[in-house]
């Protein structure tokens, strides 16, 4: 008699299956480079360079996740040579009804608030910038495939502003926040948004050493141990 299939083994096989991905970007060199940088647990099942062909390929391949540029040519016609600011948005709205199980992750060079908000409103589950490494993109793909939302740290404030707070709601000033000086609060917000020390120094016209001193003071006063804890602390209080 044939051996009975073990239910735990079947679930393990499903869990170990690669995440099926379609890459949508109008630059072929970027698509090739991204495909090469993604880890072995991701299977690229299709590519598209414009919105119209993307909708067709997504419908045909039914991927788990679509890695989607925000600015795309519309496709099919002379007018398609110019990037369409709503191209990524139109892909989501055109494909999502056909493939409701597919999730969309925006991957763009743009970190403009209007681009972030528009594509998230259309239905994207996350938004990361093209400065991300192959390993970071791979982790984001897995997280989105599992149902999580993923954003580059610097973009978290845009998302919270647009979706996280009720109309008219403002961040309450807590006793913890009152412990920080005005300059420490400025440094805290930039660090929590994902800025590097050098970027904070340039933004506030202070030295790197001064930034380091402020960060140490902020972490000590808030009783936190890392910038990651600081980001979580600031997000919970809608301070980004």
Automatic annotation (TrEMBL):
UniProt-listed InterPro entries: CheY-like_superfamily, NreC/VraR/RcsB-like_REC, Sig_transdc_resp-reg_C-effctor, Sig_transdc_resp-reg_receiver, Tscrpt_reg_LuxR_C, WalR-like
Positions of modified residues (4-aspartylphosphate): 69
Protein name: Response regulator transcription factor
Keyword Membrane: no
The entry's keywords: DNA-binding, Phosphoprotein
Domain (HTH luxR-type) ranges: 173-238
One Pfam family in the UniProt entry: GerE
């Amino acid at each position: 008699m044939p051996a009975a299939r073990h239910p735990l083994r079947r679930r393990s096989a499903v869990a170990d299956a690669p995440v099926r991905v379609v890459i949508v970007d109008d630059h072929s060199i970027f698509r090739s480079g991204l495909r090469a940088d993604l880890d072995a647990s991701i299977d690229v099942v299709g590519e598209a360079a414009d919105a119209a062909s993307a909708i067709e390929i997504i419908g045909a391949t039914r991927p788990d996740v679509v890695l989607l540029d925000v600015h795309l040519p519309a496709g099919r016609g002379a007018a398609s040579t110019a990037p369409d600011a709503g191209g990524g948005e139109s892909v989501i709205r055109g494909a999502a009804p056909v493939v409701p199980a597919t999730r969309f992750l925006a991957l763009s060079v743009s970190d403009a608030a209007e681009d972030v908000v528009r594509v998230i409103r259309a239905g994207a589950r996350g938004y990361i910038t093209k400065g991300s490494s192959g390993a970071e993109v791979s982790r984001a793909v897995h997280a989105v495939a599992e149902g999580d939302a993923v954003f580059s740290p610097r973009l978290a404030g845009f998302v919270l502003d647009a979706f996280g707070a009720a109309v008219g709601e403002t961040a309450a000033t807590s006793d913890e926040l009152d412990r920080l000086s005005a300059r420490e609060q400025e440094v805290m917000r930039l660090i929590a948004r994902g800025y590097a020390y050098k970027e904070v120094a340039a933004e506030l016209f202070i030295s790197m050493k001064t930034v380091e001193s402020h960060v140490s003071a902020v972490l000590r006063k808030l009783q936190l141990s890392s910038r990651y804890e600081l980001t979580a602390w600031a997000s919970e209080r809608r301070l980004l």
